[in-house]
Amino acid sequence: MVETTLSGAAQHQILKNDYASEWMGLEVLKVDDGHATVRMKLRQEMLNGFGMAHGGMIFAFADSAFALACNPAAPSPSDADTITVAAGVDINFLKPAYQGQVITAVANRRAKNGRSGLYDIQIFARDAAELTASESPDDSSSYGELIAEFRGRSRTISKK
């Protein structure tokens, strides 16, 4: 199994039992209130019959970034009995991504009102050989080409 890693980010509580993100090899680059930047490398088992990333893999990857942006990494006592989940999402695929490429998702909160929120997640792809160790998670120009746009609507609910 591929390990979920955190580079320079505190362990996020929702990753503790998130086996889907672990399987994908999710690497958390940055998490702040209402924001998350994550990346993963596309593997052979993530491809469809056309040899490109399966749309469901891109969706699941963006959904993980969405979840990280929606939920606090260290919940306050007032947040301890709630979780924020997807109420609905839309995704637009713009370009394909391929095996060996690294995809990066940048999730940002656009609005929050009461228990409802609106988030935009941009997904970028580039060749793994282009990665450098000194890159900053704040430098979106280094993420590659925009391949998809994901919009998520969130709802905060009680834990059960």
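The record above closes out task 2.4. Task 2.5 opens with a second protein, given below.
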Amino acid sequence: MRALILSDIHGSAIAAGQALAFFEKFNCDKIFLLGDTLYHGPRNPLPAGHGPMGVVDALAPYKERIVAVRGNCDADVDLMMLDMPIEDEFAVVKDAGTEGAPEKTLFLSHGHIFMPECFPADALHTLAPNDLELNGRSVDAYVYGHTHIWKCEKNFKGVLLVNPGSTSLPKGGNPPTFALYESATAASPAKFSIHRLDDGSELASAEI
């Protein structure tokens, strides 16, 4: 699996188009969409190229390949327009990698419900108590958005925190960014990386 990771597009059709161009460039087969996709939010300025229907149209050809979670700015009407399955609180991606590679468990959420800094590896035991397949799994990485600031480092619980930043309204003096995930192989571990939206250059990476 190679996944393009996007968050906090906030209705910018220009940013969505720029980001999705990297789906082909990096030979991706999945998109992790981490919320706040169409609405710019009452506390944010309108992003450049604001056009929510343009974002809908840009994402539509990929909808069968998207794993999506809901953000705090995503209203019911936004979810209806996107016309794809979107999890309310979190999604779990079970990545088997290639033959001979260890399986990885990725926890996807927008970041406003489950605090990343103290998120434990055994969180699924509590969050999915009746799902016998999930609740025994240890989370390898928590992938989230919300802050508009990219991050790629472990918390004090040993869980890798991956925030792709925002494609349209970055904060903290950062440029617009996105992230990538590459499955493990028999020869190399699974890897997350953060990239600039303007040229795709890598800013940071971490292996799990």
